[in-house]
Amino acid sequence: MKKIYIGMLGCGTVGTGVAKLLIRQKALIESRLGASLILKHVADIDIARDRGIFFDEGVLITDASKVVNDPQIDIVVEMIGGQGIAKELILKAIKNGKQIITANKALLAMHGSELFKASEANHTDLAYEASVGGCMPIIKSLRESLIANQIQAMTGILNGTCNFILSKITVEHCTFHEALAIAQAKGFAETDPTLDVEGYDTAHKLALLNAIAYGMKVNYNDIYIEGITRITPLDIEFARQFGYKIKLLAISKNRGGTVEARVHPAMIPFDNLLSEINGSLNAITVVGDAVGDIILYGHGAGMMPTASAVVSDIVDLARNLLNGAVGRVPALSFQTDAIKNIPVLPIDELRTHYYFRFAAIDHPGVLSKIAGVLGDHNISIKSVHQKGRKSDGAVPVVMMTHIAQEASVKKALAEISALEIVTGKPVLIRIEDKNGEDGN
């Protein structure tokens, strides 16, 4: 049986999971692949830690250069993370003719164009299924299963940390900071959760999906990004009363000459399947012109779910090697000369429904003043809700709007914030529903 040699860079949580699958599922993988996958070297700065798995003598090493320079190694799996040494080692491995696998979405979102170009120039493959959605096969689905479809839209819950936090606030009515502390205690959130809770991690993933879906360059910097730190139990309760749940969404829509690409908290109706995705699960809906709506969901992080996606890439590249078919599937689905500079729609041009919450002084005429400012900016109010008087004299006033333009909304809220009758910064949450463009 032919042997294909694997080298791995980094052996943290996911890397350990990859090693476990390659070793424990060796016979199963061989029966499906028709070749033997040999984990020759695993480079990590800590080779003494007990990972709950037995490595043969000489497999665990501290010198990463041995992995990328070993002429016997066919496939290099990067599990280091970050955008520094990981990038350097990947480029070196590509130069040495290695096939590359990574789950490093931040690296690909920021430097993907350079890495994919280097891979193509050196006639190697760069696979990255585990970089988006953990065990959900969204990249394979877009690149292969949906190849005959014009992708019209994608909407996803792509960060398990944020989904866990919002689920906790919804069910237990705790604050954002209380929910974050629980997420950190359970290992769902990092000590510094900024990449997750501010939406950057989700945007990294959306940048890759946009490129694959629409044949555009990886364009992270133009994605509008807003996190979940200002979401409160009060807003979640209002959303529930109106028939919505609040989720951090990655939203992408094909507008023909432009693409909508935005990450922010949004209200979605109870009958939207994404509203039922709770805890640390991920999910994404894709709309294709031939297939209509499809949905994928599963664990977006964690040792074994993510490792499963990495091993699927290893087997794909191994099959390519066995058949001399390097480059069979383009890294971004489209042929290089078909990838275009498609602009991202500026957020100010967005038109959708909005939820506003103001802390207003409980005096006569307050509602008419706020409504007057909104009217001056062509923002039509669909409904108004006001809670009872508070001891400090300020009450929450909630307004739901008909379709409005983002630029006008921003101007109106800035003007309302300056009114003496309003205390604190107004809360804005966009609403995503089936009537988002019906003009109502």
Kindly report the oligomeric state of this protein: single chain
Poorly predicted parts: none
Q: Estimate the strand proportion.
A: 25-35%
The first-level CATH class name of the largest domain: Alpha Beta
CATH superfamily of the largest domain: Dihydrodipicolinate Reductase, domain 2
Number of strands: 17
CATH architecture of the largest domain: 2-Layer Sandwich
As for the CATH topology of the largest domain, it is Dihydrodipicolinate Reductase, domain 2
Cα-atom Rg, whole angstroms?
A: 24 Å
Largest sheet: 11 strands, mixed
Structural class: alpha/beta
How many domains make up the coordinates?
Answer: 3
The helical percent reads: 25-40%
**Distance between termini?**
65 Å
How large is the count of helical segments?
14
Query: What is the average per-residue confidence, as pLDDT, rounded to a whole number?
Result: 94
Specify the overall morphology: elongated
Describe the SSE topology:
Elements: E1 3-9, H1 13-24, H2 26-33, E2 36-43, E3 60-61, H3 65-69, E4 75-78, H4 85-95, E5 99-102, H5 105-121, E6 126-127, H6 138-145, E7 151-157, H7 160-172, H8 176-185, H9 194-197, H10 200-214, E8 224-225, H11 233-242, E9 244-254, E10 259-269, E11 281-288, E12 292-299, H12 303-322, E13 351-361, H13 366-376, E14 381-386, E15 394-401, E16 404-405, H14 406-417, E17 422-431
Can you give me a brief rundown of this structure?
The chain has 440 residues and is an alpha/beta fold. It contains 14 helices and 17 strands.
